[in-house]
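Q:
My hope is that you can spare some time for a protein that puzzles me. I hope you can help me see how the letters and the C-alpha cells relate. Thank you; the sequence and its C-alpha cells follow:
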Amino acid sequence: MASRHSESAFETVIEAHLPANGYQPVAPAGFDRGRAIFPEAVHAFIRETHPKEWAKLEALHGERTGEQILDDLCTWMDQNGALATLRHWSKCYGRTLHVAVLKAAHELNPELEECYAANRVGRTRQLRLSVTL
C-alpha cells in the first residue's frame, strides 16, 4: 500500500513561497557534491563584491583562481565551521574574502550597503549529497 503522506506537497508550497521573499533558484546540476557547495554562486559573489582581491589572486593563479578560492574556502569551513565563515571571512593567499556580508548597523558606508545587497540566498529542491552515488 502506498503511503498517503508525502513531503512533496509541502516542498512545493515552500518552493513557491521562497522566490517572493528574495530566494533565487539554483540549478541542482551546479552542486559540487565533493565540496557540498555551489561553485558558480561563490565565484559570482566574490567577483562582484571583491573585484580587487579576485584580480590579485588571478594574477597569481591564472585560470586556477576559482579552484584555489574554493579549496581554501572549504578548508577554512572545515576548520572553522560554516556559520563562522559566513559571519567572518575566508582567507586565500593572504586575501580576505567574505562569502556573505552582514547588514551594517548604519547606512554611512555605501560600498558596504552595495556588498550587502549583493548577498544571494538560493533555493533548490533536495540534493543528493553522497559522492558515491
Notes: The CA atoms of residues 58 and 64 lie 8 Å apart.
